Hints:
This protein has one helix and seven strands; from the N terminus they run βββββββα. By secondary structure, it is of the alpha+beta class. It has a five-stranded antiparallel sheet, with no helix packed on it. β1 and β2 form a beta hairpin. The protein is elongated and about 40 Å long.
Amino acid sequence: MFTKGANGEPAVLPGARIVLRGLITKETESDTQGAFAIDGLPPGTYEIEANAPGLYAALAVEVRAGTSSTVPVEMHVAAVTSPTSPQLTRLKAMDCAFSRKVHHA
Length: 105
């Protein structure tokens, strides 16, 4: 996971939430170097969706049997078109879920 810094150089994004959807759905988080790995996927086409505060990326990737792939995921500023957009609603729901966990911990 990376984005472009002010100088145009890539900047890694640790802690981004990654969801892989296809024949199966898996979720993970990028590590301190902005990397992530998801093993044991059946061959097929998957969509990678990545979210970090204020950033978003989505792209499709083909998974083939017996190979591993390195997929650079560049995140961009998340566009919010209206206060009731599905993306904003989902982010608000995630914030509420996180808040509940913190208060009950």
